[in-house]
Amino acid sequence: MPTSPSFLHRLPVLILLMLAAPASAQVGATASGTDAIEIPAADAQPAAVPVPDLREQLAACAICHGEHGEGATEGGEYFPHLAGKPAGYLLAQMQAFRDGRRLYPRMVYLMQYMDDGWLGEIAHWYAAQPAHTQRVESTALDAAARARAETLVYSGDPERGLPACAACHGDRLTGVEPGIPALVGLPTDYLIAQLGGWITGARSSKAPDCMADIARRIDPVDIRLVSTWLAGQSAAPGERPLPAGSVEPPMPCGSLTAAHDPAVTTEASP
Amino acid sequence: MNRRGIRWGRLALLLPLLAILLVGVLMFRAQGGFAPFKVPEEGSRPAALDDAQVEHGAYLARIGNCVTCHTTRGGTPYSGGRVFQSEYGSIHAGNLTPDPETGLGDWTLEEFRHAMRHGVSRTGPLYPVFPFANFAHLTDHDLDALFAFLGTLPPVKAAAPENVLTFPASWRHGAVLAWRMLFHRPRTQADDPSKPAQWNRGRYLVDGLGHCDMCHSGRGAMQSLPVEQYMAGGHITGLGWYAPPLDRISLERWDTAELADYLRSGVSRHGSAYGSMAEVIYTSLQYLDEGDALAIATYIKTIEPSLSRRARARNRGDLVTTGPASANGLLIYQNHCAQCHGDDGRGRGLDYPPLAGNPLVASASAVNSVRLVLFGGAAPTTEGNPRPYSMPPYVGRLADDEIAAVVSYIRAAWGNGAPPVSLDEVRALRRIPLD
User: Percent of chain A at pLDDT above 90?
Assistant: First the structure.
């Protein structure tokens, strides 16, 4: 019942971030066409699906996220792809919408009366679909900007106490089972909105909330820069997240220590 | 949609009138006299009798749905803070955990019983969002079990935020007293010996703990619940859903066992739960034991339809029919809806609800249908329905006039015979808060 004006929450940060567009980035050269969103043909059967087909039950989700969770863009809004993301991550996000840690009214509305058992099954189903790892945009960055972004992503910024993104998200930025999502295959605006969400509180994860700490430590100019750079990266088509245990997170994340196996279900928490 | 309430402005005019002694005294007596305001100061805080009592209390708390009103989204259960919006502002439900400062930690059993029965505690007279008129029906045995259960919760220090109300609603003692004098008529309900025990049990649960009338009854002035609109159907304050009438005629299509199943599982071949009813089933009714579910179904199927409900159904002249051709509605239906609800509108088993012959679709208020088409929905997960089917949202894919056309179509088709829905109604609902 409490209204969650997530967009309004987010607005000031978004404006701030948009205004902070670095002089060095030549935004505008957005690729469309050949290497834009890769959506599997509607009737393409995903490779071995170890879980029952939930497409009928998930008809509502398909409207925004695509029939296999391949994602979609509509009227300038991006509906994130779910396909191939780690099941534990997907489950945590759906619980976060339901339990008030991530505010996006239309998602909250659909998640609010779903228990962990069902959300776990949904998570497994989307996780089993082909991963979407191709870049969705490419914005030309000049050499200095590119170098700064690569430093942040692969080495971090010790002065700001900022660990490398790759230290958790994996060397190829494809994420790590069971709780860390890929950073490739997402558009700039979505990435900015998520990092902004951690700053405003529209998005939060279980404490200690490592991503909130990280988002607050990055300079707003760097948020835009890193997001723009990330949106231009791809991994191999269908490349899966790294297996569990592949990385040793440089700082504690509550969402990684919490029981993450969606098969282990807890009772509906109203 | 707020055609019912007199506003507080008018109450301001009424207040001096109430001061006229005689009327005042009579009304004061009618709301219970002085007794409700004598909150017991002495008393004891007995330890729970045994595990069985605590377990019984936990069950009752489920059916009374204390947790839903007394918990914020994602908050610690029973620690309070949920906000209730109305035209007068917002009211917060308090902390029911046994924290001595901010919860019920230093309450005695006597004070708890008193607050539940009379709606007055050390806080003062309580706003009627708290269903004390319902809880007044509870036996000592049940109230004591509830208190014993609440006492076993881990104490949480959490003071509810201040209420934000406009004057005079903000003046707790004055406004609630005035409201009580005007509308509160304490009624205790003895079992009706001419009826079977199951029926009596059903009525005890429906009118008492279940507080079904808080949503399913029509509202009078200032959010009151006039007896003549008992279970006549009503709009839910602040949430915008419409709860349909519950009575002998509206529930004719269900047999008792089916209805009992629906209350626990949220699905049936007559329809599935959504909106506030999905919440009630998810957080509360799914935990009903079989006997109690049957008792509730038995009772609600015998309620006589209220006269005001019939009158209201006739008075639907207020709608402007900017009606787009229904041919358009049929076309949209075939393209977007028939794949699930069927060309004949009969749905598919437990998966997709029927629209043909569904009184909710043909009901006087079209808000539920419009909202589902705009924003979609899914029945709650329950043990009986662990993988609910879902209805896709159409906002953004169908224009407002197309939504008006398709909803008008399903309201009229297959003999549903309900009047069309206006474009304005669709536009107004588009802005409704979603969660």
Answer: 69
Q: Which fold has domain B197-306?
A: Cytochrome Bc1 Complex; Chain D, domain 2 (1.10.760)
Domain ranges of chain A: 5-38+57-259
Cβ atoms of B411 and B421 closer than 8 Å: yes
**Chain A positions with Cβ closer than 8 Å to B:** 1-4, 54, 56-64, 74-75, 98-101, 105-106, 108-110, 112-115, 117-118, 121, 268-270
More confidently predicted of B149 and A73: B149
Of the two residues A17 and B206, the one the predictor is more confident about is B206
Identify all chain A residues contacting B71, using CB atoms and an 8 Å cutoff: 270
pLDDT digits (tens, 9 = 90+) for B397-411: 999 999 999 999 999
CB nearest to B435's CB, from A56, A62, A105: A105
Residue B388, min C-alpha distance to chain A (Å) = 6
Interface contact A60-B393, CB threshold 8 A: yes
Instruction: Output the CA–CA distances (angstroms, integers) from residue B272 to B258, B266, B269, B358, in the order listed.
Output: 12, 6, 8, 11
Q: Write the ipTM.
A: 0.89
Across the interface, of B68, B377, B379, the residue whose CB is closest to A270 is B68
Q: Break chain B into its structural domains and give their ranges.
A: 35-183, 197-306, 313-430
- pLDDT tier at A47, thresholds 50, 70, 90: very low
Residues of B whose CB is below 8 A from A204: none
Of B379, B381, B397, the CB nearest to A115: B381
Contact status, residue A228 vs residue A141, Cβ threshold 8 Å: yes
Tell me how close the Cα of B206 comes to any Cα of chain A, in angstroms.
21
Closest CA to B279 of A1, A56, A116: A1
CB B208 within 8 A of CB B223: no
Confidence band, pLDDT 50/70/90 cuts, at residue A139:
confident
User: Which residues are CB-contacts of B359 (< 8 A; sequence separation ≥ 6)?
Assistant: B244, B250, B253
Are B22 and B113 in contact, with CB atoms under 8 Å apart? no
What tokens were used for B306? 């209220």
Task: State whether A100 and B74 contact (CB < 8 Å).
Answer: yes
Q: In which band, very low, low, confident or very high, does the pLDDT at B18 lie, cut at 50, 70 and 90?
A: low
Cβ neighbours of B283 in A, within 8 Å: 270
CB-CB neighbors (< 8 A) of A114 in chain B:
378, 380-381, 388
Starting at the edge strand that comes first in sequence, how are the strands of the sheet with B83-86 ordered?
A: B83-86, B89-92, B164-165
Taking CB atoms and an 8 Å cutoff, what residues of chain A touch B83? Answer: 1-2
Does the structural domain A5-38+57-259 have CATH classification 3.30.530.20? no
Query: CATH 1.10.760.10: does it fit domain B313-430?
Result: yes
Tokens matching residue B45: 């805080």
Average pLDDT over residues B11-16: 68
Question: How far apart, in Å, are the Cα atoms of B83 and each of B77, B163, B240?
Answer: 15, 8, 15
Categorise residue B132: left if φ over 0, alpha if ψ from -120 to 50, beta otherwise: alpha
Does the pLDDT of residue A103 top 80, yes or no? yes
Q: Chain A contacts of B380, Cβ < 8 Å?
A: 113-114
Cα–Cα distance list, B293 to B55, B193, B215, B288 (Å): 18, 21, 18, 6
Q: Do A2 and B71 touch (CB under 8 A)?
A: no
Count residue pairs from A and B with Cβ separation < 8 A: 104
Please tell me the distance in Å from B79's CA to the nearest CA on chain A.
13
Does B82 sit within 8 Å of A106, measured CB to CB?
no
- H or E segment and range at residue B290: helix B290-300
Q: Could you tell me which of B401, B328, B313, B291 has the C-alpha nearest to residue B365? A: B313
pLDDT for B261 equals 98
Give pTM, 2 decimals: 0.90
